[in-house]
Amino acid sequence: MKKKTVLSFALALALMVTVIGTATSAFAATSAPMEPVTKIATENEDAIWEQIEAVEEKSDAIFQRNAALWEKLDEICNALPDDYDFTDFDEAAFIRSTNALTEAEKETLLADIKELNELDAQMEALYAQLPACDNMPLYEKALEKADPKVLDEIDTLEQEYDRLCEKNADLWDKVDEAYFNLPDDYDFDNYDEAAFIRSLGFLTDAEKDALIADYNRLVELDNQLCKLYDTIWGNTGCENGICPL
Q1: How far apart are the C-alpha atoms of 185 and 239, rounded to whole Å?
Q2: CA distances from 7 to 85, 101, 151, 176, 193 (A)
Q3: Comparing 25-29, 71-75, 169-173, 204-208, which segment has the lowest mean pLDDT?
Q4: 50 near 242, Cβ under 8 Å?
Q5: Cα within 13 Å of Cα(172), Cβ side
Q6: What is the C-alpha to C-alpha distance for residues 62 and 110, in angstroms, rounded to an integer?
Q7: What is the full DSSP assignment across 13-74?
Q8: Do 50 and 244 meet the contact criterion of CB atoms below 8 Å apart?
Q9: What is the full DSSP assignment across 99-151?
Q10: pLDDT by residue (tens digit) across 83-120?
Q11: Which residues face 239 on adjacent strands?
Q12: What is the rounded end-to-end Cα distance, in angstroms, of the chain?
């Protein structure tokens, strides 16, 4: 099963971290007496996250088994005119209507979509059991009580995280593409990001050194942010250098 490390999700994480950065900046100017941390974790939250990860891996496996077909579909969509009306876009209906796919290819993709929709429903049900991140009162209440110095530190680290993610974005795109082209029998259980980067022949030695340095720093930043988030929101579920926030 393909399982990525921090940098494989770096850009997505950066976007999510930016959302939190906006919130922390908004509250940083407000000083309030320190009160006990608002705990947002539930007793079974770890088990729920494990189930979510398992569903995500199943979803990833579906995409990987027909990766070439999904890439072909992406190319078909990218070739659509700029004024194409994507309002209420129905992927299954689009697949059925296109002449750029064979009937066999359509059936394969439609079968994948059916499975993916079922997994999406499972994912939504699991997320519904977690503390409601989009129902913000608990998070906002904790932010209001947070130490402004901690919020400033979070903001500084998040900004550095964003800069690192953006600095070599083009190179990371190439690394991700190489990763997704690895064979299904690759030993992903023992995947090492730095070693994988070193093995890529299309990168110069200088590029490899730069990416590995960025990766190591991003891991450090992620771990620091996890600890700081925990001081505000309790157990956020940070684990192995991956912060779910």
Answers
A1: 26
A2: 34, 34, 24, 9, 8
A3: 25-29
A4: no
A5: 22
A6: 12
A7: HHHHHHHHHHHHHHHHT-------------TTHHHHHHHHHHHHHHHHHHHHHTHHHHHHHH
A8: no
A9: SSS-HHHHHHHHHHHHHHHHHHHHHHHHHHTS--TTSTHHHHHHHHHS-HHHH
A10: 888 888 888 999 999 999 999 999 999 999 999 999 99
A11: 242
A12: 24
Length of the chain: 245
Give the DSSP letter of residue 239.
Answer: B
For the full predicted model, state whether its pTM sits above 0.70.
no
- Residue-wise burial string across 97-107, b where 16 or more C-beta atoms lie within 10 A, e elsewhere: eeeebeeebbe
**Separation in Å, CA 157 to CA 13, 27, 146, 181, 229:** 13, 16, 16, 32, 12
Tens digit of pLDDT for each residue in 150-190? 889 999 999 999 999 899 999 999 999 999 999 888 888 89
pLDDT of residue 209: 95
Q: 154 CB contacts (<8 Å, ≥6 apart)?
A: 20, 21, 24, 225, 228, 229
d(Cα 36, Cα 63) in Å, to the nearest integer?
44
